[in-house]
């Protein structure tokens, strides 16, 4: 019994240290300390005849680009960036753990992106190595590269709608 209590206590302590799930912030006056200014361009997501999201490679630079995709009156955010090695990275712009919080979105800080809710940072070069459901941006499995663009399956993105209902990330 003592072992179970110890394991549960350790788990709670570790989760609390990451800052994930911080639901104390509900408006700008209570935003987390250190909220960073959004840099980079913001685009409305384009779709193809199948309703899938299309992102042109020529719009992805080493400065983060944000894409807004509207589904059922909810804006779902995507983030695209090219790393220092020229590799493209596209993720869903909310945290797997913090998602649902208004500030669970990522802003670029040099060669990293930072969650505006919990403050965790991630190297841009590591955005392909994300833990599913972890305290990190949400990876996209159904991402197809075709010539000069990326095509993202809209159904995969739409399943995260509930994480964006209170989201205050970059949309315009």
3D structure, described in words:
By secondary structure, the protein is an alpha+beta fold. It has one domain (2-23, 38-164): Rieske Iron-sulfur Protein (3-layer Sandwich), CATH 2.102.10. It is 13% helix and 32% strand. The chain is built from two helices and twelve strands, in the order αββββββββββββα. The strands form three sheets. Strands 1-4-5-6-10 form a five-stranded mixed beta sheet, with no helix packed on it. The chain has a four-stranded antiparallel beta sheet with strand order 2-3-12-11. The longest helix is centred in the first third of the chain and has 17 residues, at 2-18.
Distance between the termini: 53 Å
Helix content: 10-25%
Computed over alpha carbons, the radius of gyration is 17 Å
Helix and strand sequence:
HEEEEEEEEEEEEH
What is the molecular shape?
globular
Q: Report strand %.
A: 25-35%
Note poorly predicted spans.
4-29
- Report the CATH topology name: Rieske Iron-sulfur Protein
Properties at a glance:
172 residues, alpha+beta, Rieske Iron-sulfur Protein, 5-stranded mixed β-sheet, 4-stranded antiparallel β-sheet, 12 strands, 13% helix, 32% strand, globular
In a nutshell, what does this entry contain?
With 172 residues, this protein is of the alpha+beta class.
Question: What's the layout of helices and strands?
Answer:
Elements: H1 2-18, E1 42-44, E2 46-47, E3 53-56, E4 65-71, E5 74-82, E6 88-95, E7 106-109, E8 112-115, E9 121-123, E10 137-139, E11 143-146, E12 149-152, H2 154-158
Parallel strand pairs: 1-4
Antiparallel strand pairs: 2-3, 3-12, 4-5, 5-6, 6-10, 7-8, 8-9, 11-12
